[in-house]
From TrEMBL:
Lineage: Eukaryota, Viridiplantae, Streptophyta, Embryophyta, Tracheophyta
Function: Component of the replication protein A complex (RPA) required for DNA recombination, repair and replication. The activity of RPA is mediated by single-stranded DNA binding and protein interactions. Probably involved in repair of double-strand DNA breaks (DSBs) induced by genotoxic stresses.
Family designation: Belongs to the replication factor A protein 1 family.
Record note on quaternary structure: Heterotrimer of RPA1, RPA2 and RPA3 (canonical replication protein A complex).
Gene3D superfamilies recorded: Nucleic acid-binding proteins
Protein name per its UniProtKB record: Replication protein A subunit
Keywords noted in UniProt: DNA damage, DNA recombination, DNA repair, DNA replication, DNA-binding, Metal-binding, Nucleus, Zinc, Zinc-finger
Record-level Gene Ontology MF annotations: DNA binding; zinc ion binding
GO terms under cellular component: nucleus
UniProt-listed Pfam families: DUF223 (PF02721), Rep-A_N (PF04057), Rep_fac-A_C (PF08646), REPA_OB_2 (PF16900)
Length: 604
């Protein structure tokens, strides 16, 4: 009996589409036919033996398909679904399934009506739908419910994951997890105003809502951070990747006719935070990109709070740096700003000796000191989260991680691709590719790998700066003695020197100038800036300083570089910055040459 579909199940689905949205729908068992992926979802034909209907499964069920719980020709029980028109084909419908469960694995063949007729086996819908009308059921449920719950029963709430642009009417229940400021604009259509909110439902799914002009003025004061709302009569469209701030294929637009009602006097919910973790050794590809990332790591160290002067308004804002490590044996510095620096940051400082695991959502990846992370206004920090990833990471750290030697992700990039930063053998170009394209890096930084010789290092350039030993930022001489750090807001008697130098590099196609910072410059010169400064100050027959620079020239390296544009005297110029340096791996270089030869033969 378990290998059975509900008799006339599709007809029941179609007849129930006009029921009040709050009605409890009958459970129906159908066969999955022609299961196939479409984007991040799966479509299939729901088959009851007599009729078929197009259907779509949400992305949340992808794992069950991959694991084999839901199979082609298998049976599923529909627990929650909606029926919508197919755009441009008003006579055709499709079913959007928001909740279902596997009943049986794949059958030998597709179920046909004549085959099922001989067995006479059906799984009937819930009995109350036979004996009572939908309105009777709702009235009984409302009568038995507490007053605070009756309002919620008048509508059927859709999970965000089920929404799509082709859907008809829907109602969502969401919490405002981020609210933007009201912005004004002036374009060819005239002046206007706009603001955005980030909305999260109980399952942790997020969507960005946008309101323009009259709708923006109507709803700006109504939406309050942290409150829960029922929203309906909005529209959806594909999200613009350039401006989207959450992980969702769609974005929502509300107009002045949309309905936004605060869910007061009801049981509230705290949205589950959904993370999409990026391992620390894979952060390289996100540097200076618009994508926000989530990270999880073990706290290695926590700095004191620093006060940083903001450039645009000269306001002093608090900042705190924490260093995280993960199983890739790489570390990264995360800068916490504002309330996160003084609140959770202080909590982390107090428990730093215990090396807690923290998960952080919505981080910006920058290139300060190679690769660094920074919180923004909507970042969320969870200490010791109750998740499989956190437990696995903590077990690894307690077993072996605490004794393992770690290296900073920004300290250099190896010639292999296994450290997440791009391989020195990907995006390989000659110097002429960069110098002959002066517009490279105009819109955003671009990254390449190249093999070149250091051909000249100017000995009379300013090769280093005095740096704070805590934060590595530039210090100035104090009035009495010692050095003052504006970042840490403190004075120290000593400082360190850190490289910031220009060097000329050459290959068979040309030459250009690279800018190299401390970690990369140390690999090129072969000593620290303090050591080179000592050699420069020494007197003797042999100038050890000049000798050291000569030893560094005409040596070949693999460089990972970033190309961007900077403005100087109202003129835009290319700036090429060294992101990583590696010695030549001649075996790998030989394999690369053989690949190029093979490609050339194929093209001929």
């Amino acid at each position: 009996m378990e290998n059975s579909v509900t008799q006339d199940g599709i007809a029941t689905v179609l007849s129930n589409q006009s029921l009040d949205s709050s009605s409890v729908r009958p459970d129906i068992v159908v066969q999955v036919v022609d299961l196939k992926p479409v984007g991040n979802r799966y479509t299939f034909n729901a088959n009851d033996g007599k009729m078929k209907m197009k259907a779509m499964l949400p992305a949340t069920l992808t794992s069950e398909i991959i694991s084999g719980k839901i199979q082609n020709l298998g049976l599923i029980r529909l627990l929650d679904y909606t029926v919508n028109d197919i755009p441009g084909k008003s006579e055709e419908k499709y079913m959007l399934i928001t909740k279902c469960e596997a009943v049986a694995s794949a059958l030998d063949s597709e179920i046909k009506a004549e085959i099922k007729a001989s067995t006479g086996i059906t799984l009937k819908p819930k009995q109350e739908f036979v004996a009572k009308s939908a309105s009777q059921i709702i009235n009984e449920q409302r009568g038995n419910a507490a007053p605070a719950a009756r309002m919620a029963m008048t509508r059927r709430v859709h999970p965000l994951v089920s929404l799509n642009p082709y859907q008809g009417s829907w109602t969502i229940k969401v919490r405002v997890t981020n609210k933007g400021v009201m912005r004004t604009y002036n374009n060819a259509r005239g002046e206007g105003c706009v603001f955005n909110v980030e909305l999260t439902d109980e399952e942790g799914t997020q969507i960005q809502g946008t309101m323009f002009n009259a709708a923006a003025r109507k709803f700006y004061d109504r939406f309050e951070m942290g409150k829960v709302y029922y929203i309906s009569r909005g529209s959806l469209k594909l999200a613009n990747k350039q401006f989207k701030t959450v992980q969702n294929d769609y974005e929502m637009t509300l107009n002045e006719n949309s309905e936004v009602e605060e869910a007061s006097n009801e049981e509230m919910f705290t949205p589950e935070i959904k993370f999409n973790f990026v391992p620390i050794d894979e952060l390289g590809t996100y540097v200076n990109q618009k994508d926000l990332i989530d990270v999880i790591g073990v706290v290695q160290s926590v700095s004191p709070t620093m006060s940083i002067r903001r450039k645009n308004d000269n306001e002093m804002i608090p900042k705190r740096d924490i260093t995280l490590a993960d199983e890739s044996k790489k570390t990264v510095v995360v800068s916490l700003w504002n309330d996160l620096a003084t609140g959770i940051g202080q909590e982390l400082l107090d428990m730093a000796d215990n090396h807690p695991v923290i998960a952080i959502k919505s981080l910006k990846v920058g290139d300060f000191q190679g690769i660094s992370l920074s919180t923004i206004s909507r970042s969320n920090v969870v200490i010791n989260p109750d998740s499989p990833e956190a437990k696995k990471l903590k077990s690894w750290y307690d077993a072996e991680g605490k004794e393992t030697s770690m290296s900073a992700i920004g300290s250099g990039m190896s010639s292999s691709a296994n450290n997440g930063s791009r391989s020195m053998y990907s995006d390989r170009v000659f110097l002429s590719h960069i110098t002959s394209n002066p517009s490279l890096g105009e819109e955003k930084p671009v990254f390449f790998s190249t093999r070149a010789y250091v051909s000249f290092i100017k000995p009379d350039q300013t090769m280093w700066y005095r740096a704070c030993k805590t934060c590595n930022k530039k210090v100035t001489e104090a009035i009495d003695s010692g050095y003052w750090c504006e970042g840490c807001q403190k004075k120290d008697q000593d400082c360190s020197l850190r490289y910031i130098m220009a060097l000329k590099v050459s290959d068979s196609t040309g030459e250009t100038w690279f800018s190299a910072f401390n970690d990369e410059a140390e690999k090129i010169i072969g000593c620290t800036a303090d050591e080179l400064n000592y050699l420069k100050s020494e007197e003797g027959e042999v100038n050890e300083f000049q000798t050291k620079l000569k030893e560094a020239t005409w040596s070949s390296h693999l460089f990972r570089i970033g190309v961007s544009q900077q403005e100087y005297n109202s003129e835009k110029r290319q700036r090429i910055t060294v992101r990583g340096v590696s010695p030549i791996d001649f075996a790998a270089e030989t394999r690369l040459l053989l690949q190029d030869i093979s490609k050339n033969k194929t093209s001929q």
